[in-house]
Amino acid sequence: TGGSVWEVDCKVLEGGNRLVSLYDLSERVSVAKSHADFVANASHELRTPLANVIGYVETLMNPKAGGNEELRNRFLGTIRHEAQRMQSLISDLMSLSRIEALKHEVPADNVDLVALANEVAGDFRANAVVNVTANCAHAVIAGDRGQIQQVLRNLIDNALKYGKPEGPVHVSVEAAQTAWVLVMVRDEGEGIAPEHLPRVTERFYRADASRSRAAGGTGLGLSIVKHIVERHRGRFDIESRPGSGTSCSLMLPLRED
Ligand code: ADP
Questions:
Q1: ipTM of the predicted structure?
Q2: Is this structure's pTM higher than 0.90?
Q3: What is the rounded CA–CA span in Å between residue 35 and residue 32?
Q4: If you placed Cys at 246, which of 64, 120, 225, 240 could pair as Cys (CB 3.0 to 4.6 Å)?
């Protein structure tokens, strides 16, 4: 019932009694299906830019089109853009598989979220306004520094991609009296419609696929964020009001001294 998959095993015991065993295989079948869907989606995402690259290269190899300098430069620009799309996708796929491989290891670097938020925000400041506020000088968690950096980068990158490209983006770090720290990344962009909101952390899910692709998105950013936060025994939430902005928050356990 309800898509369940069962295996039935029946043994005849001494004396003629029968032992019937029922095994619920639903979980295993659904994991296998989601794995197959993932591979199919990833292949599809790679195939499109690759087909474009091949198409443009073949056109350039044609002496008539290849001889036109302006056309050549335009096509080379497109080839570079498509190649960069494949590069971003491969790098996100590798991040996902690394997170998966490390999922049973407890991350143990001392990561100060106040310092890291300032550092990551600083990397974006050449092109955008990214404000950082904190209610404490330090908020240290036991974590994987590279992964937490990736979380902040993905969230700020999204805030600029789907908000206003020049910002402002507001990052806040609040360590509570309890053992938790709350990090929020808020933008004043277009927001996410309620029908998309519950699904945006799924792999390859996008509210607007062509917009995401044009902005260089892979559809994997938020699923990477969610995986990393779960590996750190934290919580990830998104709240959004269409027309006025999106707020992504991470709750992470502070390091116990
Ligand atoms: P992508 O590579 O497409 O940005 P993500 O997993 O990072 O993939 O995000 C999934 C989708 O969620 C995006 O395609 C976009 O539709 C939506 N989204 C994510 N962050 C924001 C935001 N700050 N404002 C509006 N929409 C967002």
A1: 0.98
A2: no
A3: 5
A4: 240
